[in-house]
Amino acid sequence: MKVNELKKEMDARFDAVDARFDAVDARFATVDARFEAVDRRFEVVDRRFDAVEARIVDEGERTRRHFDVVAESLRSDIRVIAERVVALDKRMAASESERIPIISTLSDHELRLRVLEQHRR
Q: How many C-beta atoms surround the C-beta of residue 47 within 10 A?
């Protein structure tokens, strides 16, 4: 084989390699275009996620403010109930000394009624 023939064969092979690289480059161009489309879609999704996240944060803040108001109202209601329970306990303690004579009188009265009823029979 002569140098000229080798050169022609090598040139033909390099042309084939170049053609294959051109085909690969075309495929990469297609892939690049698809990735650009995907990137644009991700940008849209990212904006939507940012909007949703902002709404969640806003709703959390509003819920927290509302809960704080409700909790303060409950504290106030519980304080009133506790004060009334303390006052009632004081009244019950004060009336305890008054109830003892009444209970003993009623017990005596009950005993008296039984005795009277036994005599009737």
A: 10
Domain ranges of the chain: 1-96
Taking alpha carbons only, the member of 93, 96, 97, 75 closest to residue 85 is 93
Task: Determine the length of the chain.
Answer: 121
- pLDDT at position 50: 96
d(CA 92, CA 99): 10
Short-list 100, 81, 101, 78, CA closest to 89:
81
DSSP single-letter state for residue 25: H
Give this prediction's pTM.
0.45
Residue 115: name the closest of 107, 99, 101, 103 by CA.
107
